[in-house]
């Protein structure tokens, strides 16, 4: 797939992109403005906003681990509610992100102007072009730059908080009576003012959800996305709450309410252990780093929206073009041009409310999308993280977003309505005739079943295959214990099914005729997967304690017709695979099935398997996701020390497993009491470091024989 992005981002990258996108205007610009609505309790508004975003964060984490694709909210809404909602959500979130990014980059120019006589907007445009170059060379390099920004920023902000708490509690900067005066009035606007302020500063946490727009580029997304988001929210919420409290406690209330650089003003009364004005300089540098990190992360995530929409034909296909560095070149150019346009023609006033309002609307849709996906019963919807307290968490998220939108006022609502109208018109006149899919919502409502888009399940299966196995899935164990039969004389499908049904009737405790009949029905229902030269049968039964696999390798092609109901078989057939699992573990069955398909789709797989005469070789071929090595025990070699000893007596490194032993052309799974004999061939699994340690202990310089597949 040419327009597929590289998976280069780890947990710290997720944390850095999310956290870096949150620390800019929220900390260095908005606290004073937000205090107009609620007074000294503004620090509670920040904490409240962090709590209120939790339901939407849980919903986003669930969907993004099920659908780790570029485009974030656009992709989720398109696949759940259909392409019209995807268009609205994609365009709206794209514009909101670009506005927020432009606002942050203007902040770079504004703070630079404090030290040098430079035009604010020219500095902002130069910074935008620099971020564009970083994005063009790859997400990993962009994220590396981001990690430097975020690490530097967190060090300074933590220092600010520690020094601020010391100044308030022990440094004599303010007395208890003075602190009481600073915190009065506490709730100047009552609860209504607190919620209005929380809605206003809600934009400060939007970076938390930006990470999902680069989900396709994240390694192990089922772990790294939810964990990275949770870590980012905890760290950011603590710094916002404590940092803004320090500003409230130190700066005079009237001055604070009109201050556009409150962190720098607070720092001027702190950091007594540094030279004069060093604290102000330090916080100004931190602000520059914060605005730069937000601008960098904003351009990275925003550019993935036109890329994903171009890939799905909702925008011109040129947006999905990927350059030599594996980045969406045209989408980055297009996004950069828009951000520069916003910098040149727009003022900063009102941007925060506009971005917050539309994002809250998107959160309503995303919370509803989780309900839609769960109710659709699509088997291949397999999130690695499940939102807690479903569906109450999603209902709470929807209600919270509605309430905050109301508190933000009519102008942002009208702007949001305008973006919705733009999305509807664009879809009607440009995309409707190019897109034939529908969302998961049509899989939920039976009355809409005639519009159900069957390819959605195929797409989710493809995503499931790309995600791979989940930790704990016993695929390797199932391969190791699998039953392999090799037919060297002519055979037909009836012989294959009889052989497999005989074996499974004993293992499952069920009648042979019933098992065979179920496999034949699967052929008639087109439920058997057909690959070139391969048939894959799969089924679930009750009372199955562990997965089971059986593989038939026919040296000659199977005789007779394969009774598929509505499609041709990819003949000639030489390989038949059977995968059985418990009906209580349908998701695990799907993951193991997609892993098996991934292996058997590889070029020349049939020729490779037909050339093998050993069950061990076939099983090793199916263990291609592991580091493994085959070792033959011979006298006169360094590994001869193993001969004649029980396996439990052999000192093996941690995380190394002797999975198979081939002896006299027969393969079996050993146990601790198995005595190793001369000419045994051992299949040893483990990570590369453990296998290297094994070689140093028993095989010396023969380490080059290791297969790293």
UniProtKB/TrEMBL annotation:
* GO cellular component terms attached to this protein's record: membrane
Q: In this protein, which residues make up the domain named PTS EIIA type-2?
A: 477-625
Positions of the RCK C-terminal domain: 616-700
Spell out the molecular function terms from Gene Ontology.
monoatomic cation transmembrane transporter activity
Keyword terms, alphabetized:
Membrane, Transmembrane, Transmembrane helix, Transport
Any one Gene Ontology BP term = amino acid transport
Asked if the record carries the keyword Transmembrane helix, the reply is: yes
Membrane topology of the entry? Multi-pass membrane protein
Per UniProt, subcellular location reads as:
Membrane
- Transmembrane ranges, per UniProt, are 12-34, 40-63, 84-112, 118-137, 149-174, 194-215, 227-251, 280-302, 322-345, 351-373, 385-407, 413-429
* Protein name as it appears in the record: Cationic amino acid transporter
């Amino acid at each position: 797939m040419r327009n597929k992005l590289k998976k280069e981002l780890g947990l710290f990258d997720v944390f850095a992109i999310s956290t870096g996108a949150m620390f800019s205007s929220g900390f260095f610009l908005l606290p004073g403005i937000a205090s107009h609505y609620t007074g000294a309790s503004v620090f509670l508004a920040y904490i409240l906003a962090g709590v209120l975003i939790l339901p939407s964060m849980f919903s986003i984490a669930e969907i993004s681990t099920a659908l780790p694709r570029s485009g974030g909210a656009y992709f989720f809404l398109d696949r759940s509610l259909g392409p019209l909602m995807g268009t609205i959500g994609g365009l709206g979130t794209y514009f909101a992100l670009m506005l927020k990014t432009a606002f942050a980059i203007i902040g770079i120019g504004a703070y630079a102007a404090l030290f040098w006589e430079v035009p604010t907007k020219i500095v902002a445009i130069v910074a935008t072009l620099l971020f564009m170059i970083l994005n063009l060379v790859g997400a990993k390099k962009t994220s590396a730059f981001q990690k430097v920004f975020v690490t530097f920023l967190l060090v300074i902000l933590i220092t600010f908080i520690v020094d601020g708490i010391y100044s308030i509690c022990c440094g004599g900067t303010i007395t208890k009576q003075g602190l009481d005066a600073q915190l009065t009035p506490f709730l100047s606007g009552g609860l209504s003012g607190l919620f209005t302020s929380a809605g206003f500063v809600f934009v400060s946490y939007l970076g938390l959800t930006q990470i999902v727009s680069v989900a396709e580029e994240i390694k192990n997304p089922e772990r790294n996305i939810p964990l990275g988001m949770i870590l980012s929210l905890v760290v950011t919420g603590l710094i916002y709450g404590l940092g803004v409290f320090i500003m409230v406690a130190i700066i005079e209330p009237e001055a604070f309410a009109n201050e556009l650089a409150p962190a720098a003003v607070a720092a001027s009364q702190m950091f007594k252990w540094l030279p004069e004005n060093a604290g102000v300089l330090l916080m100004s540098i931190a602000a520059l780093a914060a605005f730069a990190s937000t601008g960098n992360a904003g351009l990275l995530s925003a550019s993935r929206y036109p890329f994903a929409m171009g890939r799905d034909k909702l925008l011109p296909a040129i947006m999905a073009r990927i350059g030599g560095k594996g980045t969406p070149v045209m989408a980055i150019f297009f996004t950069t041009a828009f951000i520069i346009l916003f910098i040149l023609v727009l003022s900063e006033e009102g941007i925060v409310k506009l971005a917050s309002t539309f994002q809250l609307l998107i959160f309503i849709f995303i919370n509803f999308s989780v309900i839609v996906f769960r109710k659709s019963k699509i088997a291949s919807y397999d999130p690695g993280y499940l939102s807690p307290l479903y569906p109450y968490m999603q209902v709470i998220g929807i209600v919270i977003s509605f309430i905050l939108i109301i508190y933000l006022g009519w102008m942002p609502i009208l702007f949001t309505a305008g973006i919705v109208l733009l999305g509807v018109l664009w879809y009607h006149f440009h995309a409707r005739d190019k897109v034939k899919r529908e969302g998961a919502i049509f899989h939920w409502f039976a009355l809409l079943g005639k519009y159900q888009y069957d390819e959605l399940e195929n797409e989710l299966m493809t995503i499931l295959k790309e995600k791979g196995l989940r930790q704990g899935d016993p695929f390797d164990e199932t391969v190791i214990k699998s039953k392999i039969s090799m037919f060297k004389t002519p055979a037909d499908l009836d012989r294959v099914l009889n052989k497999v049904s005989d074996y499974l009737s004993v293992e499952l405790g069920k009648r042979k005729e019933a098992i065979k009949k179920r496999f034949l029905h699967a052929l008639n229902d087109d439920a058997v997967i057909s690959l070139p030269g391969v048939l894959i049968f799969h089924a679930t039964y009750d009372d199955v304690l562990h997965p089971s696999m059986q593989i038939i390798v026919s040296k000659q092609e199977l005789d007779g017709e394969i009774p598929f109901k509505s499609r041709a078989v990819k003949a000639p057939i030489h390989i038949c695979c059977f995968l059985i699992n418990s009906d209580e573990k349908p998701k695990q069955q799907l993951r193991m099935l997609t892993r098996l398909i991934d292996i058997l789709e590889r070029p020349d797989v049939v020729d490779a398997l037909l050339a093998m005469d050993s069950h061990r070789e076939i099983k090793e071929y199916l263990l291609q996701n592991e580091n493994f090595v085959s070792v033959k025990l011979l006298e006169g070699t360094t590994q001869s020390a193993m001969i004649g000893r029980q396996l439990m007596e052999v000192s093996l490194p941690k995380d190394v497993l002797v999975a198979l032993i081939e002896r006299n052309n027969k393969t079996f799974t050993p146990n601790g009491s198995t005595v190793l004999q001369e000419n045994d061939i051992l299949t040893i699994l483990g990570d590369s470091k453990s296998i290297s340690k094994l070689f140093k202990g028993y095989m010396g310089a023969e380490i080059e024989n290791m297969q790293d597949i």
